[in-house]
Amino acid sequence: MTIIETPAGWPANEAEALAVQDELRGRVVLDEPGPAPGTGLVTGVDVAYDDARDLVAAAAVVLDARTLTVVEEATAVGRVSFPYVPGLLAFREIPAVLAALGALGEAPGLVVCDGYGQAHPRRFGLASHLGVLTGLPVIGVAKNPFTFTFEEPAEERGASSPLLADGEEVGRALRTRTAVKPVFVSTGHRVTLDNACAHTLHLTPRYRVPETTRHADALCRRALKEAMA
DNA sequence: GCGACAG
DNA sequence: ATCTTGTCGC
Hints:
Layout: E1 2-3, H1 14-24, E2 41-50, E3 55-64, E4 70-79, H2 89-102, E5 110-114, H3 126-134, E6 138-142, E7 160-165, E8 168-174, E9 183-189, H4 193-202, H5 211-228
Parallel strand pairs: 1-4, 2-5, 5-6
Antiparallel strand pairs: 2-3, 3-4, 6-9, 7-8, 8-9
Helix pairs in contact: 2-3
The protein binds 2 DNA strands through residues 46-51, 84-87, 89-90, 92-93, 114-116, 119-121, 125-126, 140, 142-147, 184.
């Protein structure tokens, strides 16, 4: 369990955060296919909060992409560095996520995070921001549609429908379990949307949300409780 | 202007 | 995200 340090020059308010998104947005890479699904390593990251005590805990869980077994885990705890503001989630989560990723003893491979990447009001959600700062391939799998409207995908697992913004497909509502509410996939950095959806399906052999986020979610909650005790 | 809004 | 009991289902 390492300590989270807020990066120097981290935005102190919404105006500064918006300026940072504007500045970094152009560094996103969208023309790389990304790693092949089912090969190499896949790392899930997630963050838990206790705003009353100003505490935050993050977890990074590395899985073997082929077997979906846990290969390594890392956690980090510290103080909250930004409030939750829709559209600025990255500024709240990234310091913690970077600390957890940095505590790993090996390269994370593909990173899967909760939230959006390109499917974002300014095309620079958490997954894209994390990708630009780390240089790693990153995708975002969100549990809620945020501000996007979408057509209900067919009932079968694997069915999807586009998330549109200005007529462009910035993400997909993807059914990972038959007859169950879809998840919302978008690419963050160095991965194609098709590939991001393929990865998401590989990571959901049994539950609606990816194994990576299930492990990371459980671990960061555990880390937060330990930090309080 | 008001409400909605990833986690 | 988080506050929270029981409950239906595989």
